[in-house]
Structure formats: structure tokens, C-alpha cells
Amino acid sequence: MRLLIFGATGAMGVFIARRFLHVYPSCTLVLYARNPSKLPADLTEDRSVIVVHGQLDELHNLSKAMEGVSAVITALGPTGRKGPLYPANKPIATAYARIIETMRVHGVRRLVALTTPTVRDPADQFSLPLAFLRTTFATIAWNVVRDIIAVGETVRTVGADLDWTLVRLALHSSDSDPNAEVIAGYMGDGRVKAVSSRGGAAAFIIDELEKRAWVHKAPILSSP
Are 166 and 115 in contact, with CB atoms under 8 Å apart? Predict the structure, then answer.
């Protein structure tokens, strides 16, 4: 396997990259980074890791990173730090469209995309804690919410022919244990909560690459 990860400089991306190297030590991991200096040394110094420096709008570098890849994980996401100043042109959803088109050009079909419960699914029901989080976030960063929603729409429409899985994560605990249990389900199913273990979520995501139990589905991950 040759895996390409976008967003590996973020906390969740680092957990996923490390889990992949643990499970597949003889495989190749490609990390696409706008700022490679933010990658931890244990990743950049690993012989199985290739770092491609590039912006999300640089099609040449996107294509270079995609060469020979068998699966893609995107841990990209808008940040609420800019609040009301976040741009209205949905930059992350636009980047997803470029990534999906580049995947199609290179014949890459497997996509696991990280997002949040702001992206809705027909199987969802009402959940007061998750609805409260969504409403609160939308109040202070409406353009961020619009971008997150557009990411889900882009994966489901532009990437309709891909073997995609939308993994929805709410709040992350600092738990780094890859053996920490996580539950996959839907909003309001009586099982899913608002918090998940980073380590457990990373293990679930790497397992899902080949298990394919959630292709064309959008599970929410949470701790039990």
C-alpha cells in the first residue's frame, strides 16, 4: 500500500500517520504539507515517509504526490480561529474538489475524509449535545460551518464514483492509546457521544482503509 495523507501537520493527522506506519511498516506514506517544518521529526525521519511540499491549489504538486498512490486520507478542515473573518468562498471544499479530480486522473479510488457532525447524514436523528455544539459553532463562525457542510457535499457529489468514507469526529480527547475503544454510529442512535479518543479514532481510520465496512457511509466516531 502507498497512502497519501493531507493535513498531517494537524494533531489528528499526526496520529493517523503514526498509526499507518505502525500497522504497515514496509509500506510507503506520502505526506502533503504546506509547511513541512510543522511535521514531527519521527515522521520526516522515517525511511517509509515521503514529504511533498505544496499548496492545496498547486495542481502540479498535487499530481506529483498522487503518483502510485492506492488510497488517500484527508484530515483537512477549516479552523474556527478566524471566526467571522473566515473567508466565504469555501476554501477547504474547493481543495477537496481538486484532490478528488487529481485522484480520478491517477485512478485512485479509495478516500477516507475526516469531517465533523456538522455534515449531516440521512441516518442521523436528533441529539441535544451534538446539536448544541453545531449551533454554538455556527453562531461564532458561520462561514466555517458552510465550508464544512460543503466538504460533505463535495465528497458525495464530485466524488460520487469513488469509494469514499466520511468519518465524522466531534470533540477529541487527548487519549493516544490506539487500543482505546471507539464506537461508529449515527447521531441520536443512543450510542454515539460527543467525544472520541484520538488514538482509537486513528486506529479505526487505518483499519477502514482495507476493511471497507463504511464505504459510501458517514459514521460518527465516539468513545463508548
Answer: yes
